[in-house]
Amino acid sequence: MNPAVWLIGAGPGDPELLTMKAVKALGLADVVLVDDLVDPRILDYCPDARIVRVGKRGGCRSTPQDFIQRLMLRYARQGLRVARLKGGDPCIFGRGGEEAQWLSAHGVACEVVNGITAGLAAATAVGIPLTQRGLATGVTLVTAHTQDGGMPDWSALARGGTTLVVYMGVAKLQDMRGQLLAAGMDAATPVAMIENASLPGQRECASTVAAMADDADAFRLRSPAVLVIGQVAACRMYGAPDAPALAETRLRRSA
Ligand code: SAH
């Protein structure tokens, strides 16, 4: 475990959801490039590293991707161990694939360290099992926001029979609603909208495909949020509202 660059998934926010491998790599890094949506508590694991904020909200107004890649390359060529810390998993809507390819093309060894992606964490945080026998045959992770401004093929997704976990969907709810209903999805299909999953400000809005846009407005749903669409969204593994508190108690007891 000693590449020049680690692309590390920071998970959805809660530092306890980091992998041990991520913690180890952060502890070895000389310089850490930090994205938006990475919880600041995670930087406690790299107290001696130089921290460079490369997210849009971190002061580097819309740091261009190209600039970030060149920065990683420059540090790596200086012989520094570089950690690129991204929210969730680096390779789920996180450009991890592009960055790893670019580094490899420039002769720099890199390793991706998985993080728990927001969609998985959000569902579990509110007690939703993303697959459940009889309710969903699989899960599809999808972004509502594509680079060219286009939309995913909602009608194919509506017919697929899997739970849909939608990232970057807050501004697209009205469009999604129209497309899913037009594709024949049952208007009463349950939807869970989860904001700030795993963080102290976590909120959940339960709705349906027909009502999701209006409900999100009334709820003042804000990014970052994921949507879980499908029968499992109405299913709960345990008493929902105090589930995170229960989980904490369980962890404390077993510690
Ligand atoms: N690589 C990240 C996703 C980055 S795209 C991952 O694997 O999770 C950014 C989108 O992720 C946000 O628009 C939102 O849809 C989702 N997201 C990230 N963190 C979140 C959180 N704590 N709660 C809910 N959604 C989150």
TrEMBL record:
Keyword Methyltransferase belongs to the record: yes
**UniProt pathway:** Porphyrin-containing compound metabolism; siroheme biosynthesis; precorrin-2 from uroporphyrinogen III: step 1/1
- What's this protein's name? uroporphyrinogen-III C-methyltransferase
GO MF entry, a single one: uroporphyrin-III C-methyltransferase activity
SUPFAM superfamilies hit by this protein: Tetrapyrrole methylase
Q: What class of enzyme is it?
A: transferase
Tell me which residues make up the Tetrapyrrole methylase domain: 5-210
Family listed: Belongs to the precorrin methyltransferase family.
Source taxonomy? Bacteria, Pseudomonadati, Pseudomonadota, Betaproteobacteria, Burkholderiales
Q: Which GO terms describe its biological process?
A: methylation; siroheme biosynthetic process
Record's keyword annotation contains Transferase? yes
Sorted alphabetically, which Gene3D superfamilies does this protein's record hold? Cobalt-precorrin-4 Transmethylase, Domain 1 (3.40.1010.10), Methyltransferase, Cobalt-precorrin-4 Transmethylase, Domain 2 (3.30.950.10)
What Enzyme Commission number(s) apply to this enzyme?
2.1.1.107
Which UniProt keywords are given for this protein, alphabetically ordered?
Answer: Methyltransferase, Porphyrin biosynthesis, S-adenosyl-L-methionine, Transferase
